[in-house]
Amino acid sequence: MRRRSVLLAVPALMLTAAGCGSDSKTSDSAASSSSTPSGTASASGTPTSKIVSGPVPAVTAGTAFNQKPTIAKGSVTPSTDLAVKTLITGDGPTIASGDYIQVNYLGQVWSTAKVFDTSFDKGPYTNVIGQGKVIPGWDQGLVGQKVKSRVELAIPPALGYGSSGNSSAGIKGTDTLVFVVDVLQRFNAASSATGSVVAQNDASLPKVGTNTDGKAPSITVPKGTAPTKLVSNYVLEGDGAVVKSTDTLLLQYKGVVWSTGKEFDATYTQGALAAFPLAQLIQGWQQGLAGKKVGSRVMLVLPPSLAYGTTPPSNSGIPSNASLVFTLDILATL
After folding, report:
1. Measured between alpha carbons, how far is 156 from 137 in angstroms, rounded to an integer?
2. Are the C-beta atoms of 230 and 290 separated by less than 8 Å?
3. Residue among 254, 253, 46, 269 at smallest CA distance from 160
4. Contacts of 145 (CB under 8 A, 6+ apart)
5. pLDDT tens digits for 23-47?
6. Out of 83, 93, 177, 312, which could bridge 154 as a Cys pair, Cβ 3.0 to 4.6 Å?
């Protein structure tokens, strides 16, 4: 179905030199496409609706959590309000507005049972919820649910694609949409990588903390000269998909200057996750994160040539020709 451009916040320090110029229109944001049902709110804001419990069509097969479901055609007139039914109540944390959620979903048209999109065949989808990045029916119906829940939504046109519909997906402006959504994970500012601890035995390299409590890991920089080549090592090794150069990543990170150990940037101090296309970031990040596994914590040491060289961003606290050390938790791909 139609892919919508989503603007995701990008820490300006991490952008490539081309993206860091003061006259660049992309220095603070980057465009990414999402495959989840998404639409544009009206000029007056996102439409709101009361939430009712039904009706929703029956799930006739694939009824277990994270099984691809089969959903019956709607047999009665759908509600003009948003209908939300929790089919399986999870035991995980409650989703709040501003959280990133990772889900599997299947969507179909109420009146025909035509499936127009599903992630069950292509892998889970991750995006921020409650912030207007997905259709309003998702924003309103999934906030407050628990991780590991299966939720069925019957979304009226005003909370889906509006009166224009989505012609490329075969959705008319009068169609009520039906989704079954399995909430796999939630990510927010308190999230950490959850991989297995990897030994850090090289005394000539920085040592990074292995805590998984959502707090910033420590970075202990050794005395001595920084490496002249890129170092990219696991601190915690996850078991997720391998990061590709074309991926958009959801990260927690912290950066310090090798020579002083002084922190110059971190999501932990900002209280918000970072989400951006890897291809738009400084070379050290592009080379050091591609090939690593989602769910990992990675320690990078960047020589000046792969960071900012002689022209670091103004007021960044990064000296000229500085070697930089990062700890990065790869939470998900978007």
Report:
1. 8
2. no
3. 46
4. 86, 90, 94, 95, 151, 183
5. 222 222 222 223 345 544 333 345 5
6. 83
